[in-house]
Amino acid sequence: MRAAAAGKVYIVGAGPGDPELITVKAMRRIGLADVILYDRLVNEELLAYARADAELVYCGKAPNAHAMPQEEINAALVAYAKQGKTVVRLKGGDPFVFGRGGEEALELAEHGIEWEIVPGVTSAIGAAASAAIPLTHRGKAASFACVTGNRCHGDQEPVRWDLLAHSVDTLAIYMGVSQLAVIREELLKHGKAAATPVAIIERGTTSKQRVITGTLADIHKLAVSFKVVNPALIIVGEVVRVREQLLLAERQAEAWVM
């Protein structure tokens, strides 16, 4: 990193939704900030840690509806820092997992502005755990991959579903609800069994969390039937079956207590 030219920017992960899942370091950086630029998936309860005089700037992005384009966000980070301000760029999950934190850090570095990454609990970890789905489990899964689901169309390099269908035990798919039928078709086309368990975790770790489970054969129909909306994480793999075992064990434990 280059020496600071003016202020400093902290690119901070806010965690997957539950405000208690933010790190102590992230909480402290929020309290230091003169300016906080925060995303749509950030739980706004976290803004209570900000100083009373801190400037709060919403720059959230919903599908096809961006409050502030990425280029403007980059420019704002640079501009505030050049004013000598301490800036927090607050992002849902982790800044380096589909959070464009790397792009923002590179922009700051090009302008000679000091920056620091504060990791956060990413959705694949937080939402899966909240839904009682282990991403790895002895005898069922020794590997997992975090995959974006929004590259099924357009001019970007497509996701290699042909490789992912067999090289990884568990798939954690971000931003894939709108492309679920295409993702399902790709995995089936490349040999993934139709009976493979799938879970959709909607609004993971929050009080509004829903978990819909099925298989590759029917998950796209279930998503439509249950009117699944973003944010939602899709888990594909045998580990989804462990959820049933854990929930059964929990119910049995509760019965013993009663």
From TrEMBL:
Enzyme class, spelled out: transferase
Entry keyword Transferase: yes
Keywords, ordered alphabetically: Methyltransferase, Porphyrin biosynthesis, S-adenosyl-L-methionine, Transferase
Record domain Tetrapyrrole methylase: where: 8-219
Record InterPro entries: 4pyrrol_Mease, 4pyrrol_Methylase_sf, 4pyrrole_Mease_sub1, 4pyrrole_Mease_sub2, CobA/CysG_C, Siro_Cobalamin_biosynth, Uropor_MeTrfase_CS
EC number: 2.1.1.107
PANTHER family the UniProt entry points to: S-ADENOSYL-L-METHIONINE-DEPENDENT UROPORPHYRINOGEN III METHYLTRANSFERASE, CHLOROPLASTIC, SIROHEME SYNTHASE-RELATED
NCBIfam families named among the record's database cross-references: cobA_cysG_Cterm (TIGR01469), PRK06136.1 (NF004790)
Family: Belongs to the precorrin methyltransferase family.
Protein name: uroporphyrinogen-III C-methyltransferase
Organism: Paenibacillus glycanilyticus
